[in-house]
Amino acid sequence: MLKRLRPYKFIRYELARAYRYSSSFPKIRQQQKVSSLLKYFKKTKRRSDLNDPTHPSNVLYLEICDFLKSYSKQVNLNITDQEVHNSYDIIKSFLPFQRKDHIISNVKISGISHNGDGIAIIPKSIYASEYLDSDSVLGKYTVLMVPKTIVGDKIKVLLKMHYEFYAEGELIEILNKSSSRERNILCEHFQECNGCQLQMSSYSDQLIFKQNTIKKAFDYFHPSLKVENDFGAVIPSPLQYSYRTKITPHFESNGDECTKLGYKHVNNRGKIDVEHCSIATIELNDKLKEVRKKYMGNKSMRQLTLRQSLRINKDTGEFHEIALEGPKEVVTEKVEGFVYQFDSSCFFQNNNAILPSVLDYIRFHIDQLNVPVKNVVDTYCGVGFFGIALSNLSSDINIFGIEISESSIKYANHNSKINGLDPDRTKFILGDASNIFNNEEFRRSNIKGDGSVVIIDPSRKGSDSTFLKQLLDFEPEMIVYISCNVFTQARDLSTFENLQGDHKKYDIVDVKGFDFFPQTKHVESVAILKKCK
Question: Within this chain, do residues 511 and 372 fall inside the same structural domain, yes or no?
Fold first, then answer.
């Protein structure tokens, strides 16, 4: 993961840290020079809201600080962020195309980040003396982030890009490799592909890692919430492999000819050629073989969109699984008794095997309410999945959804029709979810908070205070916050609690994780909020 150097102070959620170099104008100029240079080596698109405490770089900094505290206790030293800060000279020396090969042996992985990278620490003196003076080396350390490693690994590692408080490490060899690790790895591309970060871990360890990520997020960004041992327990996926219903392999070209079709190399060496993806469905892998024959060696392209779909016989109702190629193909999925259609560019969860578990969890908490549910308000509704799936709670329930994507809302209304929902009680509209409760169409629906369940399922950047204030004023019976980024979820729920002030209206009664993406670092979290008794 590439992080941009910044001249401003890092932000901790409760405590802003001021660094020694921040008040020195010449050093700020140096940091700006490095920042300007590093932006050309960005690997992927990143969030631009660098001041937000949940920005990935700020989360990683908090993890590094926690790691240093834990490591300091182990070795009876006091290693702080200042002892691992990388200077301008060392950062510049390790830029691509000019750095020397520094391979370090017997490096022990002692931690793991939320990105699934192993964390290690080494003295700067073992490699940096030729770049820095003695005062800058003695008593100084480098924190390493090493993909494809787990706690306890002893490794040989190649030092790569350096950033403010850590450096990238490339795994060369595991020196204490265990047979259990080898048994867990099923994909022949695992060591090179950046897609699966955790495949070397047992599945039970993966679930613990993801629960710890949830706990960490609330510890950082909602510290007033009491986090107990079972907090954030992760519901396993029914399928650990062959579950993914969408893949987007990329091409690598030589001139006008496609030479590779696959995914990014974990060590940023272009693309790797992938003939089979172990987490994709059987149908998608069959389609992948087909498109490889079609495109490899032919005209240069950028990427493909392959999605799982159903082909339904309209006369008999029978269906079978197929795979579709292209961003505008109409996909058909069935979850429980409902059918959903949408084009390939629309958002829909990529592991439909676990969706019934999520719905059962939500229904369980709805059943615990002391009042009957009359309305489901589906904010950030996409193609209408949650609103439609919960429409069978009662025969007279009202469903209201809002979504900013025009194509998604078109399919949400289409899905309402093909599933036979009452048009007088179901409405999906185009609009901004952050202003739903002030939306004119919503006001005309005459839906009130009493007897309402509100579903929140935003993008990775989370929600905002405008929406949360309206949500608080609306006063639904229950709030279900579904998130693909538990850090922004924890931040938003803390904001929601702060908006309540001394007159608390809602309690977080439960937070569960759901493993939508086995073998990877990703975890979905679902928080249930109910009115205080």
Answer: yes
Residues 6 or more apart from 524 whose CB is under 8 A from it?
358, 482, 483, 484, 513, 514, 515, 516
pLDDT in tens, 490-518: 999 999 999 999 889 999 999 999 999 99
Kindly state whether residue 436 falls inside one of the protein's structural domains: yes
Check whether 30 has a pLDDT greater than 70. Answer: no
**Residues 275 and 365 placed together within one structural domain of the fold:** no
Cα–Cα distance, 151 to 162 (Å, whole number): 22
CA 96 to the chain's CA centroid? 27
168 in the same domain as 56: yes
**Confidence class for position 35, pLDDT limits 50, 70, 90:** low
Same domain flag for 286 and 146: no
Contact 427, 409 (CB under 8 A): no
524 is catalytic: yes
Q: In the predicted model, what is the mean pLDDT of the chain? A: 90
Whether residue 149 sits in one domain with residue 56: yes
Please give the residue range of the domain that contains residue 409. 225-238+353-531
Same domain assignment for residues 87 and 128: yes
pTM of the model: 0.91
- Mean of pLDDT values over 424-434: 94
Identify the burial level of 303 via C-beta atoms within 10 angstroms of its C-beta, where 0-12 means exposed, 13-18 middle and 19 or more buried. Answer: exposed
- Is residue 434 within 8 A of residue 380, CB to CB? The reply is no
Q: Among this protein's residues, is 170 annotated catalytic? A: no
pLDDT in tens, 83-137: 999 998 899 999 988 899 999 999 999 999 999 999 999 999 999 999 998 888 9
CA 449 from chain center: how many Å?
A: 31
Helix intervals (H) in 185-281: 203-221
Indicate which residue of 63, 196, 484, 497 is catalytic: 484
pLDDT score at 14? 35
**Catalytic residue chosen out of the listed positions 63, 283, 403, 524:** 524
Q: Are 335 and 389 in contact (CB under 8 A)?
A: yes
Could you give the 3-state DSSP secondary structure of residue 27? helix
The answer, yes or no, to whether residue 261 has pLDDT greater than 70, is: yes
**Residue 454 and residue 365 share a domain:** yes
Q: How many domains does the chain have?
A: 3
pLDDT at 45 over 70: no
What's the number of CA atoms in the CB half-sphere (13 Å) around residue 430?
7
